[in-house]
Amino acid sequence: MSGIITVGLDGTDHASAAADWAAQEADRRGASLRLVHAWVWRPTDVVYVGDRAAEERWVRDMLAEARSRVVGQHPTLDVTTELLVEDPVPALLAEAARADMLVLGSRGYGTLTGYLVGSVSLKVLRHAAGPVVMVGRPNPGAPERTPEVVVGVEPGQTGESVLEFAFSAAAGRGATLRAVHAWSVPTVLAWSPGSLYLVPEADGLEQINREVLADTLKPWRDTYPQVEVVEHFEIGSASEVLLSSSARAGLVVVGRRSHEEGLRRLGPVTHAVLHHATAPVAVVPHDCPAS
To answer: What are phi and psi of 254, to 5 degrees?
Structure first.
């Protein structure tokens, strides 16, 4: 496995955590690591202590320091840096289009804090052509994480690219993959008399849903026979079930629809997981080309 993993840096602690996570991932995949910062000088009429040269020097020093840190931890890793003279959103979208994965920092962690994803990151997440991983600062007091990869699965709706990313991530880590499917009992009006007649013969709605989930995962189990898969099947809100299932996971994988407009491009479940998950979250477009 090889390729390029790109990290967007801004000099904050959570961006540094994103670089550390991405360096581990690049080392694991045999990929190269690219550290970038998007910057445009905008002088104003307000008296400012610094100047263009000083600000650019700070940015270049920040990139050099980040490179020095990750190379110290991963001596054989191919690490490059680049200062992108462009606004952050278009610059990061262009990086996401040519990298195997774009990694950004999230502002914090914890289900009570909420709304931890900045406006730039949200815009990138809504429109990125490839996978974007959000990484928060490590929490020293949090329970130890397992390597387990958790993926939210909605049979018939989850794109193949989402499952491919999740299975590949689990295989690379030698980790278990937990495929989470939350479901609810539909109202009687949502079922035709014929459908209701079939329910008892199939051992009820639960059995039907289990079979659909198993069928959805089968091609990927065949492709990745080394990956142990746990089918997590639970009645409840999809976002709540996914968040509770991933409390100690090493990575959470969710999908993003490309045809929806506005904020809902992320979908309500993906949006909730991004804001409240304590683990790194990979958002994969449903129509993302295979890596």
So the answer is: -135, 160
